[in-house]
Amino acid sequence: MTDHVLTLNAGSSSLKIGLFTAAAEPEVRATGAVERIGGAAALTLEDGAGATLGTRDLGEGGADHAGALDAALAMLREHFPEAGIAAVGHRVVHGGQDHDAPVRLDDAVLARLAELEPFAPLHQPHNLAGVRAARAAFPEAVQVACFDTAFHRHHPFVNDVFGLPRELYDRGVRRYGFHGLSYDYIAGELARAHPALHAGRVAVAHLGNGASICGMVQGRSVASTMGFTALDGLPMGTRVGQLDPGVVLHLIEQEGMSAAEVTGMLYKRSGLLGLSGISNDMRTLEASDDPRADEAIAYFTFRIRREIGAMAAAMEGLDGIVFTGGIGENSARVRREVCAPMSWLGVALDAAANEAGAARIDAGGDVGVLVIPTDEERVIARAAAAALG
Ligand code: ADP
């Protein structure tokens, strides 16, 4: 029976899959992940409650993306032999200027999305490789692309543009914004459980390995800290965040670095890792007594505060802050260090609720502060199920 949808999230060295029922509100049956593709790749599969169904070592260098998908599908079929796949939903990082919603994939759409590869060279080619592999594996299924950029496509001009010569804007050099699937999910949760905040002005901080803030007014994005690429805005695990472009020129012209070397530095060796010299992982930094770890966390939380202030200006006020992503959902310290110096904006934390990881952590001030676990896979599954009509 073709009564299920599959979600696929292909990153540079990882592949995440999800098996959901094909309902308007899909039920998760299983989630799986292949980590370290190209290296010592390993597959794990869990059921909907998070219990491990299986693990498999794919061997050193033993799997590329197609091999990883094959292995994950084989394990899925073993555990869910009855589940037919009616639709596959794909995370695709870049939808360009055209797409403000999920789209059914055909050859023409796929060709246009491939033209965007230079805009997101570290992600888009892998996303589209996943699409091609899934089309081959499920030729009868509906294939749907869900874009990280789509949620941000209706920014006002001033939040969509750089102060560059106009022809670059016309050629697509714009502030696209990313993490849109996460923000879409959070907007839905606000509408469902916090309608007053949904109707207001909320800064949503998605803090994971990648990190950004979205200014949301009445559930719609009006600004993002991420720009043309997912490098801009907040410092991240290994990415630099906002940077004077003069630094890039200096590195190339004075320090003799190649473009590839600068790219590697800005994407892979900066942010929390670069500043601390210890780790990109917040748990490791919080556990460290090295002062450089404290300084890296202090810079991270300061920049989050600065950008929340900027979002308040962009939204002409602030009614709420939402923390999400691995750090936002789990680090009481980061939430505390972000919020404590923002009393001037009407932000007051309930310290005990914050430490306990409660869903609502404000002390009843002007600004509601929430912790909402995100679920990007569910947003993809909903779109895939919706495409079935
Ligand atoms: P990705 O962006 O790759 O999806 P996640 O959203 O899973 O990443 O976030 C990963 C980050 O969350 C890591 O820096 C990790 O240390 C951090 N994190 C996870 N759990 C905790 C915790 N209990 N305390 C502090 N940080 C945490």
Automatic annotation (TrEMBL):
Cofactor binding notes: Mg(2+). Can also accept Mn(2+).
GO biological process: acetate metabolic process; acetyl-CoA biosynthetic process
InterPro entries to which the protein is assigned, alphabetical: Ac/propionate_kinase, Aliphatic_acid_kin_short-chain, Aliphatic_acid_kinase_CS, ATPase_NBD
Positions annotated as active site in the UniProt record: 148 (proton donor/acceptor)
The protein's required cofactors: Mg(2+); Mn(2+)
Binding residues for Mg(2+): 9, 376
One cellular-component annotation, GO: cytosol
EC number: 2.7.2.1
Top-level enzyme category: transferase
Keyword presence, Magnesium: yes
Highest taxon, organism lineage: Bacteria
Protein keywords: ATP-binding, Cytoplasm, Kinase, Magnesium, Metal-binding, Nucleotide-binding, Transferase
Matches recorded under NCBIfam families: ackA
Oligomer and partners: Homodimer.
Protein's UniProt name: Acetate kinase
Lineage: Bacteria, Pseudomonadati, Pseudomonadota, Alphaproteobacteria, Rhodobacterales
